[in-house]
UniProtKB/TrEMBL annotation:
GO terms for cellular component: bicellular tight junction; plasma membrane. InterPro entries: Claudin, Claudin_CS, PMP22/EMP/MP20/Claudin. It is found in: Cell junction, Tight junction; Cell membrane. The gene is Cldn20. This is Claudin. Claudins function as major constituents of the tight junction complexes that regulate the permeability of epithelia. Residues 1-24 form the signal peptide. The chain crosses the membrane at residues 75-97, 117-139, 163-186. PROSITE patterns: CLAUDIN (PS01346). The keyword Calcium does not apply. It comes from Baryphthengus martii. Belongs to the claudin family.
Length: 219
């Protein structure tokens, strides 16, 4: 029962991780720059994401521009796009697989099949967490290095936005969920290896008696 409740807790963490992963991929505030000018129509907040760049104006207007050209983007943005999409796909697969493999569900067949499905779902969550952690770390490193560069003007410097923190937290949730699923299945399999099913051993006299009874049946 404890293992089933632990798996359910890991499943809830994985759900939060999936939703946060998708939100971090789509949000435009991976890096934020505040620029206040003297004009009436002045951009007060500029945000840049993986797919679009958005701007808040002092008049309350909000405009976004999509990034259509992929080859013109920096390499860390291209890598972040690819890895975040892979993270979303793997985490969605992990949700589907662990739904079949959890103890509290009636899907997946026998105990061994559910254990294998649960382990496969945990591996998907761990890979999704790694794929989500790499782009957020790389993106944050680029922001910090540009912020500390003295040759870059102050107006061109940015800070990490909310999408980066959402990606970090989501990757942590997915990693924790994957480790819990893998360890719960590993403990179950290890218990089966340590305590094999008991087999009945008959003594030689009992075997001779059984053979004697079988021979009498044929006479």
């Amino acid at each position: 029962m404890a293992s089933a409740s632990l798996q359910f807790f890991a499943f809830i963490l994985a759900l939060f991780g999936v939703f946060g992963d998708i939100a971090a991929t789509l949000l435009p505030n991976w890096k934020v720059n505040a620029d206040v000018g003297s004009n009436i129509i002045t951009a007060i907040t500029q945000m840049q994401g993986l797919w679009m760049d958005c701007t808040w104006y002092s008049t309350g207007m909000f405009s976004c521009t999509l990034k259509y050209s992929v080859l013109s983007l920096p390499i860390y943005i291209q890598a972040a796009r690819t890895t975040m999409v892979l993270s979303c796909i793997l985490s969605a697969f992990g949700i589907c697989i662990t739904t079949v493999g959890m103890k509290c569900t009636k899907l997946g067949g026998d105990t061994d099949s559910k254990s294998h499905a649960c382990f496969a779902g945990g591996v998907c969550f761990i890979l999704a967490g790694i794929f989500g952690l790499v782009p957020t770390s790389w993106y944050t490193r680029e922001i910090i290095s540009n912020f500390l560069d003295q040759n870059i003007p102050e107006s061109s410097k940015h800070e990490p936005g909310g999408a980066v923190y959402t990606g970090f937290i989501s990757a942590g949730f997915l990693l924790i969920a994957g480790v819990i699923f893998c360890t719960s299945c590993f403990k179950r399999q290890q218990g089966a290896w340590i305590y094999p099913p008991k087999q009945h051993h008959f003594s030689s006299t009992e075997q001779e008696r059984n053979e004697g009874y079988n021979l009498k049946d044929y006479v």
